[in-house]
Amino acid sequence: MFGSVAVGPFNYETVTAGNFETTLRVQNFTLAQIGLLALALRDLSSERIRLGFAKSRGLGLIKAQVKALALRYPLCDLEGEQLRMLGGKEFDSSKLYGVGSFVEPGEDYGYPTPDQINLPPGYEYTSDGWLGSEIRAPGADGDEVDWQSLGRACVPKWKAEVEHGE
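Below the sequence we write its predicted structure tokens.
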């Protein structure tokens, strides 16, 4: 009578379990960008974000886990309590630096300056053995690492950037 089909011609299948692993790589990051990424990871790990088809019907629920976090400074060697860039510029190893900290005075690339925060407890620089340094999130291999404390420390940088409209 109405020209419709009693049982729809389309069937859909759903995945009820599974794992998907990926790696995020960010180069030349500002601390505001790390703050924004932390907010997105917070929402994913809290199951606030759904992906794919039929989200309004309850599908697409995902949960994220961060199993490793490393921030690398390839040309910043660790010498005692100082980080020394290849050109000789020194940085305090108790702080985390964004790309704005590495721009020479007078060079205007639009990066926020100063772009640094104090390292959260448990975070420290280690030498990579190749004239570079890295910071790894504390936590056991295979389990979720403590990325939230670093994220919380960087979120105010994101807030400041949004408030300034940059």
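DSSP finds two helices and eight strands in the chain.
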